[in-house]
Amino acid sequence: MAIIRLHSRKTLSNERYPLETIECEYNTKDGRTVQKTVEVYQRPSACAILLYNPEQKTVVLSEQVRIATWCNGNPGGSVIEACAGLIDEGETPEEAVIREVEEELGYRIGEVEEIGKAYSSPGGNSELIYYFLGKYSPGQKVSAGGGAEGEEENITILEWSYQEAIGKLKSGEIQDAKTIILLQYAMLNEIISA
């Protein structure tokens, strides 16, 4: 395992989260010392959940504008994705994902199942995403959802059959990595099927 030795750290921007230039070195497997200068966006950890209803055989996803995708060729900037959000200071990943489900999708759920965690883009982003599955029922709907007040998320809630969600995954219409991971996990573990 490489041990990183920090030489310097400089904040380039701190608009919302720190963007830093980090100069460091580490030893390679063959014993060489490598000097690196990298830019790292220091994002907090996040959570994502696939909300599903085994009786109705449906999932709840969302669609919202993500400016970064527009910058990289997505003409309208609109992305279909699983409910997700940042973990607030003092919150556990489980508490955060339950809060996000109510804010974004309007469901008050109880139990969730953590299925793993992964770095979203470890080449230049510190964000660690915790992945969850959660069951929902129509009786748990407590609000219209749409996002937290003041965040201007402009969320469209999508309730799709398993078949429709899997079809959109296979066709490439779903291009959000966390949503692909969650749907594929659910398919591989026979939680959902077409």
TrEMBL record:
Ligand binding (Mg(2+) 2): 100, 104
Any Pfam family matching the protein: NUDIX
User: Care to name a GO molecular-function term for this sequence?
Assistant: metal ion binding
Every copy of the Nudix hydrolase domain together lies at 42-182
| UniProt KW keywords | Hydrolase, Magnesium, Metal-binding
Q: Give the UniProt entry's GO cellular component terms.
A: cytosol
Chain positions recorded as Mg(2+) 1 binding sites? 84, 153
What cofactor is this protein dependent on?
A: Mg(2+)
- Magnesium found in the keyword field: yes
Q: Which domain of life is it from?
A: Bacteria
The question of whether Metal-binding is a record keyword is answered with yes
**What's the catalysed reaction?**
GDP-alpha-D-mannose + H2O = alpha-D-mannose 1-phosphate + GMP + 2 H(+)
Question: Which segment of this protein is annotated as the motif Nudix box?
Answer: 85-107
The Gene Ontology biological process annotation of the record reads: nucleoside phosphate metabolic process; ribose phosphate metabolic process
User: Which family would the database say this protein is a member of?
Assistant: Belongs to the Nudix hydrolase family. NudK subfamily.
The subunit structure is: Homodimer.
In Swiss-Prot or TrEMBL terms, this protein is called GDP-mannose pyrophosphatase
Name its species: Hufsiella ginkgonis
